[in-house]
Specification:
- This protein is α/β, with parallel strands linked by helices.
- The chain contains 10 helices and 14 strands.
- Strands 3-2-1-4-5-6-11 form a 7-stranded parallel sheet, with helices on both faces.
- Helix 1 packs across helix 7.
- It binds nicotinamide-adenine-dinucleotide and galactose-uridine-5'-diphosphate.
- Galactose-uridine-5'-diphosphate binds next to helix 6 and strand 8.
- It catalyses: UDP-alpha-D-glucose = UDP-alpha-D-galactose.
- InterPro entries: Epimerase_deHydtase, NAD(P)-bd_dom_sf, UDP_G4E.
Length: about 325
């Protein structure tokens, strides 16, 4: 059985849906701080618990003694907020994750798939980024995730923990069947915010910075469909079940798109014109993050199936269904 921590959130719920489709046994553990109860099907075991509460964790592993693997999505994940409120990030992303690891070991659960991030690399010195690229994060969020990679490595040496750290680039897109999608409150991510303009919910998208060292001056990111991420998690679980080993893998498309590229693609897919306001840079944003996923392909046989147009199209269908259209 797989315990999915943070399984009511954006990436977690898409992964839960995929795992269920594969016929796997799953239990979801989530405190619903940023997740949504309705994102987890009602027939799936759901524990409303908080990582900060050791009793909640103990209860999870005691109630479901056949858990052999954990997939850990639960964290705070806003780069800008982490600069303003680092304490909140170190508490939830590091300290509470240590509670999770300790509880796993108490209950003899040794396998974990961990949500890491390209934010652990900081400013890239080579592009695309491979896994051995220096990890020098430039914001507290990225530092929390790098610390957890290092802590898991220490736990592996000392206690026999096996981990796969999946360093996602920018997760985006929605369920192909449009049942679930991206829904963060407040929303800070680029694509849903542009779609808010497309449906008339907001007037314009602010473009954070126009003098980055990139061809059009705006930030470049590598957008990866959430369904592709779900598939990678499933493969990572299989890897851990047969290998007593650790992996650190990038998950990206290997293609970079600037903020202006994304706005243009949204205009093409939706047929709506998007107003933009050139604004100040956001603290903690590196200019360019593009990942090489060659290692994930070699080891897990994983490669992304969905491209930017699929990402924007599925996001658009979900966004219209969930948030409606007034324009
Ligand atoms: N969204 C991205 O582009 C992206 C990129 C790289 C890495 N990540 C990482 O992927 C993971 C999932 O991201 P997401 O966008 O789905 O976020 P999300 O906020 O939608 O999901 C996180 C889930 O964890 C739960 N949670 C948080 N703290 C908890 C706690 N203490 N106890 C129990 N549950 C708790 C929340 O309620 C939520 O359901 C995060 O770890 C994030 O850092 C995300
Ligand atoms: O209103 C906005 C929102 C975003 N952006 C820009 O769009 C790009 C993408 O921003 P997102 O907020 O959508 O995503 P991030 O790149 O900041 O963050 C994502 O990737 C990070 C890794 O860099 C983390 O893992 C994080 O969890 C995940 O949300 C950035 O250049 C950002 O400056 C804007 O111009 N205007």
């Amino acid at each position: 059985m797989i315990a999915v921590i943070g399984g009511a959130g954006y990436i977690g719920s898409h992964t839960v849906k995929y795992l269920i489709q594969q016929g796997r046994k799953v239990v979801v553990f989530d405190n619903l701080s940023t997740g949504h109860r309705e994102f987890v099907p009602s027939h799936i075991p759901f524990v409303n618990g908080d990582l900060a509460n050791k009793n909640d964790l103990n209860q999870l592993f005691k109630s479901y003694p056949d858990i052999d693997t954990v997939i850990h999505f639960a964290a705070f994940a806003y780069v800008g907020e982490s600069v303003q409120q680092p304490s909140k990030y170190y508490q939830n992303n590091v300290i509470n994750t240590i509670y999770l690891l300790d509880s796993m070991l108490d209950h003899k659960v040794k396998n974990i798939v961990f949500s890491s991030t390209c934010a652990t690399y900081g400013n890239s010195v080579v592009s695309p980024i491979k896994e051995d690229h220096p990890q020098i994060p430039i914001n507290p969020y990225g530092r929390t995730k790098l610390m957890m990679e290092q802590i898991m490595e220490d736990y592996s040496h000392a206690y026999g923990l096996n981990y796969v750290a999946l360093r996602y680039f920018n997760a985006a897109g929605a369920d192909i069947e449009c049942e679930i999608g991206e829904w963060h409150e407040p929303e800070t991510h680029l694509i849903p915010l542009i779609l808010d303009v497309a449906i008339g919910k907001s007037e314009a998208i602010s473009v954070f910075g126009s003098d980055f060292d990139t061809p059009d001056g705006t930030c470049i990111r590598d957008y990866i469909h959430v369904a592709d991420l779900a598939d990678a998690h499933s493969r990572a679980v299989d890897y851990l079940l047969v290998n007593s080993d650790n992996l650190k893998l990038n998950l990206g498309n290997g293609e970079g798109y600037s903020v202006l590229d994304i706005i243009k693609t949204v205009e093409e897919v939706t047929g709506k014109s998007i107003n933009k306001i050139m604004s100040e840079k956001r603290a903690g944003d590196p200019a360019r993050l593009i990942g090489s996923a060659e290692k994930a392909k070699q080891i897990l046989g994983w490669y992304p199936q969905l491209k930017l147009e699929d990402i924007i199209t599925t996001s658009w269908l979900w966004h219209m269904k969930k948030f409606g259209g007034t324009k």
